[in-house]
Amino acid sequence: MTKTKTKEQDKNTSRGSSSKAAPKEPIESPRLLLRRPRVDDADAIFRRYAADAEVTRYLGWPKHGSVEDARAFLASSDAEWQKSPAGPLLVFAREGGQLLGSTGLAFETPQRASTGFVFAKDSWGKGYATEALSTMITLARSLGVRRLYALCHPEHKASVKVLERCAFEREGLLRRHMLFPNLDGSPLGDVFCYATLL
To answer: Domain 25-197: what homologous superfamily?
Structure first.
């Protein structure tokens, strides 16, 4: 005998990932601790990476001009966490606890999400981005994601290397696809689309 689904049951089934529990925090990797951003992180976010023109050059959001911009990010982060099983995550060093940068997952459907990363300049070249991205792959898989993708400016060679090191495959070039507000000239630019199937 089959049962007729209630509207609420049908809604939960269609959303799928809504029934997944949020990850236990902090999320740990060999050298990193990752956790959901908090209100008292605004100053550190602004100071460590979000106000740095070199760090934010190839990002899709404007360089922060004040701590208020960081607080606006925190509000949007809370909104993401309210509607999805995961959202933005801050990345800290296990030794010393210094804020290194941020990463996270952005859900489009229960089975499809995007990811990315940004790290403070003094954290570059140490393998932190690769470690954080590997952690996002593991987290995405545990939350039922089947396709995880990332967009990358074609000139951002360091990020291309990280994505390819983590077995993301380049699927193509999306032309005039994304705003890059921190670049000179036309901010609407091409991006590489990288993805991995989980």
So the answer is: Gcn5-related N-acetyltransferase (GNAT) (3.40.630.30)
Query: What is the 3 state secondary structure string of 64-105?
Result: CCCHHHHHHHHHHHHHHHHHCCCCEEEEEECCCCCEEEEEEE
Residues 170, 161 contacting (CB under 8 angstroms): no
Q: Are strands 99-109 and 112-115 parallel, antiparallel or unpaired?
A: antiparallel
The strand pair at 147-152 and 112-115 is best described as parallel
Cβ neighbour number for residue 77 with a 10 Å cutoff: 20
Torsions phi, psi for 113 (to 5 deg)? -145, 160
* Phi, psi at 154, each rounded to 5°: -55, -25
Q: Which residues lie across from 189 on neighbouring strands? A: 178
Give residue-wise pLDDT tens across range 67-124.
Answer: 999 999 999 999 999 999 999 999 999 999 999 999 999 999 999 999 999 999 999 9
- Overall pTM surpassing 0.85 (yes/no): yes
Taking the C-alpha atoms of residue 144 and residue 142, their distance in angstroms, rounded to an integer, is: 6
Which residues, listed in sequence order, are joined to residue 93 by a DSSP beta bridge? 32
Tens digit of pLDDT for each residue in 25-38?
999 999 999 999 99
Instruction: Write down the mean pLDDT value for the chain.
Output: 91
Pairing of strands 112-115, 88-93: unpaired
What's the distance, CA 144 to chain centroid?
16
Report the 10 Å Cβ neighbour count for 12.
13
